[in-house]
Design goal:
Blueprint lengths: L2 H17 L21 H11 L2 E5 L10 E5 L25 H7 L3 E2 L1 H12 L24 H10 L2 E8 L18 H13 L2 E8 L7 H4 L6 E4 L7 H9 L13 E2 L15 E3 L8 H7 L4 E3 L10 E10 L3 E10 L8 E7 L11 E7 L8 E9 L5 E3 L4 E4 L2 E7 L2 E2 L3 E3 L3 E5 L7 H10 L15 H5 L5 H6 L3 H6 L18 E4 L3 H5 L4 E6 L16 H5 L4 H17 L4 E3 L22 H17 L3 E2 L17 E3 L2 H8 L1 H10 L3 E3 L4 E2 L2 E2 L4 H11 L5 E3 L17 H8 L17 H22 L3
Parallel strand pairs: 2-3, 2-4, 4-5, 5-6, 8-25, 22-23, 23-24, 25-27, 26-29
Antiparallel strand pairs: 1-6, 7-9, 10-11, 11-14, 12-13, 12-17, 15-16, 16-20, 17-18, 17-19, 21-22, 27-28
Helix pairs in contact: 2-8, 2-16, 3-8, 5-6, 16-17, 17-19
The protein binds beta-D-glucopyranose.
Length: about 775
């Protein structure tokens, strides 16, 4: 990069920073202080990253023998993508371990001559991996050309070649459907051609946050011995991948999204729409589509992943209860190495009335490490709602009568007979007409709290039990109430740890006088994004591929403790949108194409964070499934699809883990901005799922007039919809709403503030 380019890139960064509200130059976002390692984190982060690696192909080339020598190709051996770009990846880790460092730490024998060639090539000015700037980050780096002579020379020094390929997308930047994006570049293909011609054994290591084109693997036949999908494993990436390559960890990750034979095989054909995106595939997202209509177009299916050992499954029974079913199974390790197996319980629903997917994930479990030829029993619970369908005509989740076939990893279980059609849950109609919504909004108008006489009370009086929260809220002035419905106004609030994402709650002098503390937020899903050194965790897809909710919960309990130690109240995580299409820039922050797995993983993250005394904020509610024009685009989705797919993950997470907050998304959903969405926020989230926390916007919101009450705009419209806090906020008034509505929002914010005070005081 020339100096001119660098200056242009800095100028562009400044403009973007301005637009993002932070007005910070690049240097000002760098971490200060000394890089300290949070105790226990390296081990746990390493284990999780390793257990989330997915072995896609293996002819016995892996595991590598510690006595054998490897030659490592591909510049990402050094310029590893540890995380995706944007708010979900912008963490300052105390250290990172790339693949070469991971191999060295394991004392792996590798071709040093080749390693040095890569090192000096990557270090030269014109080849350096530049970081890019907001929305313009590199999705790949140009490869070092490798000719036949170099490859052949390396093959004299090593029996096995490793080729590392890297891809990275991010916030505001979907992956492109072109070479260097979804497809390999010509240079990458040339590298694989050359290496596989020179070596008898080649292992491909994929370092990516997105599903990318892998149709080329087949064309190399036995010239490619193994393919390991390493994702973006955070700061411990290199150690984790080395663990798997050398069999210290037996691969036990399984895919959480489908790799298809071609991009055109994916059903989400309208991805990338600029003003609106019709979700015309309906409920047939990911495997729901492929299993039902296009099994031949699957390269590596959802749930797929190899191990260095083999497993057998024996069904022990399937019992039906009122709201759930329980499957019992025995898993036997039938091979010579210890290992863990993921059991996916599949249900093939009866096909009455409606079109239904061929099969749905009904539950899952993961064994512990099973010694060779030993076994373990597992119980997998299936919530019947996961196998029901949503009937739009009656607005209810319905279980049709009939026989439901169940299988676990391809082994048939007994069928489940539902003698009579059952309504599992009646729900509120949503996405209704404006007239109906107006009536419902009026029905949900809160009453003003009766006035109290004690006027100088503060929040500590509530904490001490001298007055109730309602009594306290009742005495706040309208100005004080209004100050609670907007954040402080910008990112990197001076009230919190440098680099935070913003503050709300006690952000005005009047509220501070009443002892209301500011509530400090920080991104994000892969560790705290601050101007401090914090652990960089594996990306969410990597985590989900472990299928181990307990491990993920533990990781986030530790991450939560680190966040708490850094003075942050709210971690803006987990990201819970469905991976509708492989190109979505933030897929790395999301778990899966399946809502059950998404919900369970999201719940594990929330439980972990909140166990550590930090509040979690799942996001982006809902249908933020692409980054292109995410803040102008309308996601057009049928109610059935919303209920069964796009809301379901959030529902599972909210009902099981009770997050303290939830963040709405930028986009519209069926014509209404998510941050003004009364139906989703008031009727569904609070009304049906019992959410009693704080709903915040994603950073800034669109100005809009309320169609149901044309006198209401912006903040007033938002509040009537039930969205509490505009983040990071611009304290502007809300004209036209009642004092009761302001009090309702204030109550939500203050009960969180109270909870934060109590946690910090250890009570
Ligand atoms: C992102 C959120 C993030 C927020 C604060 C937004 O641009 O969409 O996920 O939490 O910024 O950084």
């Amino acid at each position: 990069m020339t100096n001119l380019h660098r200056m242009a890139s800095k100028a562009a960064q400044w403009v973007v920073d301005k637009a993002m509200g932070s007005s910070l130059a690049q240097e000002e976002t760098e971490a200060t202080g000394t890089p300290e390692v949070f105790p226990g984190m390296p081990e746990l982060a390493r284990r999780t990253a390793a257990e989330g690696c997915v072995l896609l192909k293996n002819d016995g080339t892996l595991p590598l023998s510690p006595e054998g020598s490897v030659a490592v190709f591909g510049r990402c051996q050094l310029d590893w993508f540890f995380m995706g770009h944007g708010s979900g990846g912008d963490v300052h880790p105390p250290y990172t371990v790339n693949l070469m460092e991971g191999l060295s730490a394991r004392n792996a024998i590798y071709d040093h001559v080749l390693a040095e060639i890569y090192q000096s090539w990557c270090a030269t000015e014109e080849n350096r991996a530049e970081p890019g700037w907001w929305g313009h980050w590199p999705t790949h780096y140009p490869e070092m050309p490798v000719n036949d002579n170099l490859a052949r020379a390396a093959s004299h020094n090593a029996q096995t070649a490793i080729v590392v390929l890297g891809r990275c997308a991010g916030e505001s930047q979907d992956l492109k459907l072109k070479r260097g994006g979804y497809y390999l570049t010509n240079e990458e293909r040339a590298l694989i051609d050359t290496v596989t011609s020179a070596f008898e054994h080649t292992v491909i290591v994929l370092n990516t946050g997105n599903v990318i084109d892998l149709s080329w693997v087949e064309s190399y036949g036995s010239r490619i011995g193994a393919v390991l999908l390493a994702w973006q494993g955070g700061m411990e990436s290199g150690n984790a991948v080395a663990d798997v390559l050398y069999g210290v960890v037996n691969p036990c990750g399984r895919l959480t999204s489908t790799f298809a034979t071609s991009y055109n095989a994916y059903p989400s054909t309208n991805f990338g729409g600029k003003r609106k995106v019709e979700y015309s595939e309906g409920i047939f997202v990911g495997y729901r589509h492929f299993d039902s209509f296009a099994p031949a177009e699957v390269l590596y299916p959802f749930g797929y992943g190899l191990s260095y050992t083999s497993f057998g499954i024996e069904p022990l029974g399937l019992e039906l209860h009122e709201q759930y079913a329980v499957a019992r199974l025995r898993v036997t390790n039938t091979g010579p190495r210890a290992g863990r197996e993921v059991v996916k319980l599949w249900c093939h629903p009866t096909k009455e009335n409606l079109s239904k997917p061929e099969r749905v994930l009904a539950g899952f479990g993961k064994t512990g490490e099973i010694a060779p030829y030993h076994r373990e029993e597992l119980q997998i619970v299936c919530d019947l709602k996961s196998i029901a369908f949503f009937d739009e005509t009656t607005s209810s989740f319905v279980l049709d009568a009939g026989t439901y076939r169940f299988e676990a990893n391809g082994t048939e279980m007994a069928g489940l007979v539902i003698p009579q059609k059952r309504i599992l849950e009646r729900c509120q109609p949503i996405c209704v007409t404006s007239a109906d919504r107006r009536a419902l909004m009026l029905e949900h108008m809160p009453h003003e709290l009766p006035p109290t006489t004690w006027l100088n009370a503060n929040l500590t009086d509530v904490a001490n039990g001298n007055l109730t929260l309602d009594e306290f809220v009742a005495q706040l002035t309208n100005d004080e109430l209004q100050a609670l419905m907007c954040g402080e106004g910008f990112m990197n609030s001076e009230l919190g740890t440098p680099g935070n994402a913003g503050a709300f709650g006690g952000v005005s002098p009047e509220l501070q006088q009443r002892a209301v503390p500011p509530i400090i937020c920080a991104d994000g899903p892969s560790g705290a994004r601050l101007r401090r050194y914090c652990s960089l965790l594996p990306c969410a897809t990597n985590l989900a591929c472990t299928w181990d909710t307990e491990l993920v919960r533990k990781l986030y309990t530790l991450a939560g403790s680190e966040v708490a130690q850094n003075g942050v109240d709210v971690l803006l995580a987990p990201g819970m949108n469905i991976q509708r299409n492989p190109l979505c820039g933030r897929n790395f922050e999301y778990f899966s194409e399946d809502p059950l797995l998404t919900g369970c993983m999201g719940a594990a993250v929330v439980q972990g964070i909140q166990e550590a005394g930090v509040s979690a904020c799942p996001k982006h509610f809902a249908c933020n499934n692409q980054e292109l024009r995410r803040n102008t685009c309308d996601s057009r989705v049928s109610v059935r699809t919303l209920r069964e797919v796009y809301l379901r993950g959030f529902e599972i997470c909210v009902r099981t883990a009770k997050p303290d907050l939830i963040m709405t998304s930028y986009n519209k959903i069926n014509g209404i901005w998510a941050h003004y969405h009364f139906d989703l926020v008031t009727l569904v989230l609070r009304g049906e799922w019992g959410f009693d926390g704080v709903v915040i916007t994603d950073w800034w919101m669109r100005p809009a007039r309320c169609p149901e009450f044309p006198a209401l705009r912006n903040n007033a419209y938002r509040l009537r919809a039930g969205v509490d806090v505009l983040m990071p906020g611009t304290p502007k008034g809300a004209r036209g709403i009642s004092r009761g509505e302001l009090q309702r929002t204030a109550r939500a914010v203050l009960s969180l503030a109270l909870k934060r005070m109590q946690i910090k005081n250890g009570s």
